[in-house]
């Protein structure tokens, strides 16, 4: 069949273009404005070219925050993905307890981020927090306001507590899509528990796991609220992740030019990683469809 | 290979079954003879899959025992029973190659590599997949996947029994015939005990030495295809097997005659006094239209299916199907039907009674 040509269809796309322009492109352009120019206020701008970018790329402070960010995302992914899978594998498949588990698992996801931060900020305090006080009482020195490791452990445990449920629920959904006959066939074939996971459960979970990893990567790479509430980026700069550093630069120091350049690079990194994930995921789908 | 004995077996999916209606599988005693091919035939939801899952150990029955060669395996896990099962929808390990799929049950049992290789090649040849052995199972057609499932079921030589749960549902009709023939020749070659669940009478009758007909959680008849055709033990068997099924006419029987819709018919054999719902069953193959003999009938329509004609008629208020040869002309004057006494069975409350009046011929009926 020949395709009919109808250029009028472009008009139907127009409302979306306008909406996206107002919601995303125009705000982004103001950031671009600041990234390539310098200003002394009064809306007077001077062309700065790439100098903000050059300054930033040569700055130890940015690279430190970047490495901390990579480390943070890598650690929480390395914990949350396997843990989420293990939780999903051990959840009841049906019945009353399945619903109970689902509700309990969803609870952390429903708590506002700054409340999560506050909960852990209090929970880990040595003077009044249940966790901090207990650790102190059994002789473990745990003070996240002064100790580098205590601060990191606190924000990582907090993130694991907050977000492992998401991975678990997605993995659980993947598991639920496996027909019973597969497990029965595996029993008859005398497959080991590991083989059942390796050849039945894992392949079926792979699609949703990719989504879980993408979501968790993006969220953790942009995380701000929770660690800010708990540690404020300290002690020193120990937990100053990229977005905390960005806010310090933009609002603390009011260095709008470098902050804008920082934002653009931050945005591009996330975009690039998401694109890689997207490509991998669609290739997986294609392989499935073959 | 083993003889499989079902001893007072019954199963209910409810935790506390009360009446007989709560049982998905009603009480059953049966020996599956070693090396025979059985078909388990019945409509959907009649309990045949329940029975199969009890034999394979995926379900533990509520009551009774199951024995393999006299050894009680009622509570033994599936792996210990050493059986193979092929499911209704293809179960393949997507990420493995076809070769690895076929080898999987052997490797899990620690067979040596040479044996696995020869066995896999043999099975691949049988299911016609030698050329695709190194492909990933993912992305094959449903046909091909189901052939892999069949192959995986047959790859072990020492299984106690091979169970098939409607395995050809997703296969193309011409392929169905071919695979069924292969299964049958495999059965001749290796002599496995095979149990083949199906709701397709042609599949059951062509595959099996003995057909087990189930209805409403109960085994209503176990017999050769010929038994099922000539002497259905239950009206369900008469109705379910045959196309169209057996004619059932309410009757009053006294001695060797029956009163049907006001007409007297000769039965050829005598019956004792019968109580309950009495029906006369006769297959359409044993009814003949005539202009001069028999009882008057009204003909509604004639369906010509090519190899014969199916005449839809009525005797009084009761439908009566007749199968006439393709060559026979059905004239306007042929308004009478002759019922051949050799094809007549008498049913009381749906169960066949023997002509001598000896009582109910009640295979597998619960007390």
Q: What features would you highlight for this structure?
A:
heterodimer, A: 290 residues, mainly alpha, MetI-like fold, two-stranded antiparallel sheet, 12 helices, 2 strands, flat, B: 367 residues, alpha+beta, Rossmann fold, 2 domains, six-stranded mixed beta sheet, four-stranded antiparallel beta sheet, 22 strands, disordered C terminus
Describe it.
The complex is a heterodimer of chains A (290) and B (367). With 290 residues, chain A is mostly helical. Helices cover 73% and strands 2% of the residues of chain A. Chain A has twelve helices and two strands; from the N terminus they run αββααααααααααα. Chain A has helices at 9-35, 51-57, 60-90, 96-106, 113-123, 130-137, 148-176, 180-188, 193-221, 225-230, 242-252, 256-289, and strands at 37-39, 45-47. In chain A, a hairpin with a 5-residue loop joins β1 and β2 (45-47). In chain A, α9 (193-221) runs antiparallel to α12 (256-289) and α11 (242-252) runs antiparallel to α12. The longest helix of chain A is centred in the last third of the chain and has 34 residues, at 256-289. Chain A is flat, with a radius of gyration of 24 Å. In chain B, 42% of the residues are buried. Chain B is built from nine helices and 22 strands. Chain B has two domains: 4-230, P-loop containing nucleotide triphosphate hydrolases (Rossmann fold), CATH 3.40.50; 239-353, no CATH class. Chains A and B meet through α8, α9 and α12 of A and β6 and α3 of B.
Short structural summary:
The complex is a heterodimer of chains A (290) and B (367). Chain A is 73% helix and 2% strand. Chain A has helices at residues 9-35, 51-57, 60-90, 96-106, 113-123, 130-137, 148-176, 180-188, 193-221, 225-230, 242-252, 256-289, and strands at residues 37-39, 45-47.
CATH class of the largest domain in chain B reads Alpha Beta
User: How far apart lie the N and C ends of chain B?
Assistant: 32 Å
Give the biggest sheet of chain B. Answer: 6 strands, mixed
Uncertain segments of chain A of ≥5 residues (pLDDT<50)?
none
Average pLDDT rating of chain A? 87
Indicate the CATH topology of the largest domain in chain A: MetI-like fold
Domains of chain B, number: 2
Gyration radius of chain A, in Å: 24 Å
């Amino acid at each position: 069949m020949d395709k009919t040509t109808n250029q009028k269809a472009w008009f139907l796309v127009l409302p979306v273009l306008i909406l996206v322009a107002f919601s995303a492109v125009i705000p982004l352009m103001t950031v671009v404005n600041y990234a390539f120019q310098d200003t002394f206020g009064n809306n007077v701008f001077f062309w700065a070219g790439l100098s903000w970018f050059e300054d930033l790329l040569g700055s130890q402070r940015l690279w430190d925050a970047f490495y901390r960010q990579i480390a943070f995302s890598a650690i929480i992914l390395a914990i949350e993905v396997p843990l989420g899978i293990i939780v999903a594998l051990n959840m009841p498949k049906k019945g009353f307890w399945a619903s109970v588990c689902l509700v309990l698992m969803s609870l952390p996801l429903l708590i506002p981020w700054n409340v999560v931060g506050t909960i852990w900020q209090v929970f880990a305090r040595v003077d009044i927090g249940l966790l901090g006080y207990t650790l102190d009482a059994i002789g473990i020195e745990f003070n996240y306001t002064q100790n580098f490791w205590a601060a990191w452990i606190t924000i990582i445990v907090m993130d694991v507590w907050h977000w492992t449920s998401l991975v678990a629920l997605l993995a659980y959904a993947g598991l639920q899509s496996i027909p019973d006959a597969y497990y029965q066939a595996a029993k008859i074939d005398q497959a080991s528990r590991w083989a059942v996971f390796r050849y039945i459960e894992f392949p079926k979970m792979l699609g949703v796991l990719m989504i879980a990893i993408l979501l968790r990567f993006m969220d953790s790479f942009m995380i701000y609220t929770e660690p800010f509430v708990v540690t404020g980026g300290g002690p020193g700069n120990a937990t100053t992740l990229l977005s905390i550093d960005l806010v310090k630069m933009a609002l603390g120091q009011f260095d709008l030019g470098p902050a804008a350049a920082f934002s653009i690079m931050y945005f591009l990194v996330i975009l690039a990683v998401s694109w890689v994930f997207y490509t991998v995921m669609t290739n997986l789908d294609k392989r499935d469809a073959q | 290979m083993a003889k499989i004995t079902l001893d007072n077996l019954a199963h209910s999916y409810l935790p506390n079954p009360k009446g007989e209606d709560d049982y998905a599988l009603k009480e059953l005693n049966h020996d599956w003879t070693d090396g025979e091919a059985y078909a388990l035939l019945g409509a959907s939801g009649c309990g045949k899959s329940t029975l199969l899952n009890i034999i394979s150990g995926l379900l533990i029955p509520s009551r009774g025992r199951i024995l393999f060669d006299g050894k009680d395996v009622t509570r033994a896990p599936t792996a210990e029973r050493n059986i193979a099962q092929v499911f209704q929808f293809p179960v393949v390990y997507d990420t493995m190659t076809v070769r690895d799929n076929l080898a999987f049950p052997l490797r899990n049992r620690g067979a040596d590599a040479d044996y696995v290789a020869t066995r896999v090649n043999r099975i691949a040849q049988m299911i016609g997949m030698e050329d695709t052995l190194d492909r990933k199972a993912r992305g094959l057609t449903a046909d091909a996947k189901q052939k892999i499932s069949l192959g995986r079921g047959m790859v072990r030589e020492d299984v106690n029994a091979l169970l098939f749960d409607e395995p050809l549902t997703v296969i193309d009709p011409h392929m169905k015939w071919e695979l069924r023939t292969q299964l049958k020749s495999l059965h001749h070659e290796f002599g496995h005990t095979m149990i083949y669940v199906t709701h397709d009478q042609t599949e059951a009758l062509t595959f099996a030495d003995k057909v087990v007909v189930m209805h409403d959680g109960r085994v209503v008849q176990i017999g050769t295809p010929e038994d099922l055709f000539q002497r259905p033990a239950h009206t369900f068997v008469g109705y379910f097997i045959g196309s169209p099924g057996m004619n059932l006419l309410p009757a009053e029987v006294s001695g060797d005659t029956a009163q049907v819709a006001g007409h007297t018919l000769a039965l050829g054999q005598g019956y004792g006094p019968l109580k309950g719902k009495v029906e006369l069953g006769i297959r359409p193959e044993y009814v003949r239209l005539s202009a001069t003999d028999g009882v008057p009938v009204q003909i509604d329509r004639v369906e010509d299916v090519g190899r014969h004609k199916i005449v839809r008629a009525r005797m009084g208020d009761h439908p009566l199907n007749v199968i006439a040869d393709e060559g026979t002309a059905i004239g306007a004057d042929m308004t009478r039907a002759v019922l051949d006494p050799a094809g007549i069975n008498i049913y009381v409350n749906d169960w066949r009674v023997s002509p001598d009046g000896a009582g109910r011929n009640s295979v597998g009926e619960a007390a």
